[in-house]
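Q: what sequence does this backbone want?
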C-alpha cells in the first residue's frame, strides 16, 4: 500500500475561485500520499456548498476509495470537476470523510493565510 499520512493542517486555510472565497478553515487536514504533493482537505461545513454542483464524474483510488466530484460555479465560469470528496473512504483514511479536496489551478487557489 502507498504510504498515506493524514495530519491536521497547521494554521488557517482558504480556498478561492473566480475571486470568491469558497471556504476558510482552521480544521483542514493535510493528506500526503507517497511522493505526491500534499493535498489540503477542507471540512464540508467550512465550504460554501452553494457554489458547488455535484457531477456524475467519479474515480477510484485503491487506497482511499471512490471519489465523487463537484463543479464550482463562479460569476465568470464553471470549473468542471474541480473539487472531490470521498463519501465512504477506506478505513485507513476515514478522517477525510465529509471533507473536500480541490484541484489548484490558475483560477482556483488553496493557501494558508
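A:
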Amino acid at each position: 500500500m502507498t504510504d498515506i499520512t493524514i495530519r491536521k493542517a497547521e494554521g488557517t486555510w482558504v480556498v478561492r475561485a473566480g475571486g470568491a472565497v469558497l471556504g476558510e478553515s482552521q480544521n483542514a487536514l493535510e493528506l500526503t500520499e507517497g511522493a505526491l504533493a500534499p493535498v489540503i482537505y477542507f471540512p464540508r461545513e467550512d465550504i460554501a456548498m452553494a457554489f458547488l454542483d455535484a457531477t456524475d464524474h467519479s474515480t477510484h483510488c485503491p487506497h482511499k476509495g471512490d471519489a465523487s466530484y463537484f463543479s464550482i460555479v463562479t460569476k465568470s465560469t464553471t470549473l468542471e470537476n474541480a473539487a472531490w470528496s470521498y463519501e465512504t473512504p477506506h478505513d485507513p483514511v476515514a478522517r477525510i470523510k465529509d471533507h473536500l479536496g480541490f484541484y489548484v489551478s490558475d483560477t482556483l487557489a488553496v493557501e494558508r493565510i
